[in-house]
Design a protein that fits this description.
The model has no long low-confidence stretch (mean pLDDT about 95). Helices cover about 75% and strands about 5% of the residues. It has a two-stranded antiparallel sheet. The chain is mostly helical. The protein contains nine helices and two strands, in the order ααββααααααα.
């Protein structure tokens, strides 16, 4: 049931226009985590009402750290969904919610614009309210629905990215940035993003469906 709800949220344009903000939060947050883990200095994150975002980090403009930072965005939502699916497979639904609250709280410290503060606060307070006041059944439902949403939603921005690239509207995209950094064509990077996100979906869905039996 939660998987079907998440599928509707991803497939229907009206609900996707809202849910896309959640994917952007995960996308930009993943850039930020990759920047910190690779030794770069995170200078701030901006989230915009049109579902775009920007993560600024400082350090060498080339090299493995910059490549890892640029590559993390599109695969981040799928990897987060996969991690949540693993926790649910191990029957830790509440841990999924508390981890989401923790990550959103850390992200809030790096937000540098008003809309970004609003979006992350709404998401964080919503998850916190469920984790603190809701009964166990509702907590489990929200954890499963959120996990399914991340898994199902992750490939869609990759497909949208390639559609924009075909029209020449994404010359500063992560894939094209990676192409300039690595000399590997942007289309190959789009393929990598798609392979990772679809792989996370297949593996994570398998864990969730096995847990539901």
């Amino acid at each position: 049931m939660t998987g079907l709800v998440a599928l509707v949220l991803v497939a229907v344009p009206v609900t996707w226009s809202i849910g896309r903000h959640v994917v952007t939060i995960a996308h930009e947050g993943s850039h930020g985590v990759a920047a910190l883990l690779s030794g770069r200095r995170l200078a701030g994150i901006r989230l915009h009402s049109d579902t775009s975002g920007l993560t600024v980090s400082r350090g060498r403009p080339t090299g493995p750290g910059m490549v890892a930072t640029a590559a993390a965005g599109y695969v981040g939502p799928g990897l987060l969904g996969l991690g949540a699916a693993y926790l649910l497979r191990e029957r830790h639904a509440l841990a999924v919610l508390w981890l989401a609250v923790l990550l959103l709280g850390l992200l809030l410290l790096q937000i540098r614009n008003f809309y970004g503060l609003y979006a992350v606060l709404v998401a964080g307070l919503g998850v916190f309210a469920v984790s603190w006041w809701a009964d166990e059944q509702l907590q489990s439902w929200v954890a499963y629905a959120g996990t399914w949403f991340l898994l199902l939603a992750a490939p869609r921005p990759v497909l949208e990215l390639q559609a924009q690239r075909r029209r020449g509207r994404a010359r500063t995209s992560d894939a094209d940035t990676l192409a300039r950094l690595t000399r590997v064509p942007g289309l190959v990077w789009v393929g990598v993003f798609l392979l990772v996100t679809v792989g996370c979906l297949v593996l994570g869905a398998g864990w969730l469906l096995a847990r539901a039996r």
